[in-house]
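Amino acids appear as letters; backbone shape is given numerically. Here is one record.
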Amino acid sequence: MIAQLTIMNQTSIPVIAKGLDASTLRGRSIADNLANITTPGYQRIEVNFEEQLKKALSDEQVAGFRSDPEHIRSGRPEVEMVKAIAYRAEDPTQYSEVNNVDVDAEASKLAENEIMYNFEVRFMRERLESITTAGKANF
């Protein structure tokens, strides 16, 4: 079992799992935004994930090395440390004259997020099937 987990961690599966987590958080955030479309002063929620992942996967910045877990991290972030973060968008625009939630923009984000989530699920399933198939071929 430990060997299987080690193999899984050497694949794209951890990154896909983080993408699924981000899509789930984004879906909840969009639902909150839509639920509060008429709440005066409500500030919409955005999710930051793709920028962080891009930095972690970029070759433009050197990855730092820590000889002790207590040392400060330097260089590009490790993929394992990338996490989706929800935050309140500081946008003074009042789309509905009540708050900064634009129902059309949220509906568009919801559709985009659903497409991304479905792709991530399909990609995860295919990766797991290929690993399972490769494992069976070795026995």
User: Anything to note?
Assistant: Strands lie at 45-48, 85-88. The chain has one domain: 2-49+84-134. Residues 1-5 have pLDDT under 50 and may be disordered.
